[in-house]
Amino acid sequence: MRPGHTKFKCDSDGSFGLIKKLYRKTTVNCVGDIVEVVKRSSTAGLNKVQCYDNGKGFQYLDLNSVLGIFFKKLNGLQKYRHFLFEAANPGVVKVQMVANGTYYYTEFNLLKTRKTCVSEIIREIKASPF
């Protein structure tokens, strides 16, 4: 396929551009705002909204504060392009600035000194809705 072309016909995904265009100009604070953006994006009714469980199926969690209890921040996060996590090494992330496999990984242990297990982290996340 030639660069710049998609496997879809232009009319099947062209309406998504209408959503993107309106979304950029709209303040969105909740799922209801996104629903309104999709509804208003096409005057011809090309874009339809389908909410999970009639909009009641969303659960918001304050992950930043919970994960901050267990993990340290990775300084300079945006300069890395490739991240490797291994189940055998929890709390450790290996990073590369270029994701082509020819450079060595830099390894960071992000788990705070407090001993913890994955089930404790999950329990804490579920207990702290946003």
Compact overview of the structure:
With 130 residues, the chain is of the alpha+beta class. The protein is 32% helix and 10% strand.
Structural notes for this entry:
This protein is of the alpha+beta class. It has two domains: 10-55, no CATH class; 63-126, no CATH class. The protein has helices at 10-24, 31-40, 63-70, 118-126; strands at 82-85, 92-96, 106-109. Strands 1-2-3 form a three-stranded antiparallel β-sheet, with no helix packed on it. Strand 1 and strand 2 form a beta hairpin. Helix 1 (10-24) packs across helix 2. The longest helix has 15 residues, at 10-24. The model has no long low-confidence stretch (mean pLDDT 78).
Question: Quick check: average pLDDT?
Answer: 78
Uncertain segments? none
Helix content: 25-40%
Count of the separate structural domains: 2
List the helices and strands and how they pair.
Layout (H helix, E strand, L loop, with lengths): L9 H15 L6 H10 L22 H8 L11 E4 L6 E5 L9 E4 L8 H9 L4
Helix pairs in contact: 1-2
